[in-house]
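REQUEST FORM: STRUCTURE PREDICTION
Request ID: SP-0412
Submitted by: Lab K.M.
Chain count: 1
Length (residues): 304
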Amino acid sequence: MTETPIWFTPPPRSPRLPEAPPREVRERIALEIDGERVEVEQGATLLDACRAAGREIPTLCYLETLTPVNVCRICVVEVEGARVLAPACSRKAEAGMKVATESPRVATSRKLVLELLASSVDLSTAPGLAELMARYGARPERFGANAASVAQPVKVDNDLYVRDYGKCVLCYKCVEACGVDAQNTFAIAVAGRGFDAGISTEHDVPLPDSACVYCGNCIAVCPTGALMPKPEHDLRAVGRWDEARQTRTDTICAYCGVGCTVTLHVQDGAIVKATSPFENQVTRGNLCVKGRFGFEFVQLGRRR
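STATUS: Completed
RESULT:
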């Protein structure tokens, strides 16, 4: 006797696309920013609260994609009842706080920090700092021509990027990006103490001899131009770098299947730099060596 086969019919496939797990809903707290009531989620920083209130808080060592290290002290604000000024980038907002973002004490602190930085560091390629110094009336020249300086020769030991530590403000961004926050290569760290502290490879070896994988993520987060792609450095050296004449075009990197968004900076018909948007959820500003530096093949044989 032959048995009738029983065919298995799979359940219908759901037409819904995979979704991210729902975002945790946190309790909201209220505080005052310059006399204005603001509500933010529990766990938000004072910087988040200030931005929610529409207050512009200057930052230098802060970046949304990196762990706050609060070393630059540019973002300090005054919390009523507190003994010292608070770094807005890392201080958590608390219910009932009263915060002043532009009190005389805050303005004096920011002015002095800017003066100390500008008296010892070359800030000529730091976007926005000249305007910030004018805003607070910073006068670094008052320390005199003999003020201590971190000026030093530019390190050019590879064909991809240069290190000009005379422009370094020790914001730690490059160290964080090379470490656990992004690349996990740990090729650089802060070496030395006090005024002699600086960013260095292991045992201060040349970059090609270090653990560097040339992802360039340190360049992407540098706020002063201390780390700079070599094509940009070379164009600046001959006075041909002009961001006003550059166009930016977003495309997808073709080297692998990850699908990283790459922003190509083009000047005079040639690609001069490649970056990635920090707000992009795939890259969050990060790229590999191919994505950041592997665009030269496009221009091989190009007439000049």
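NOTES: The chain has three domains: 28-102, 107-143, 161-299.
Reviewed by: T.R.
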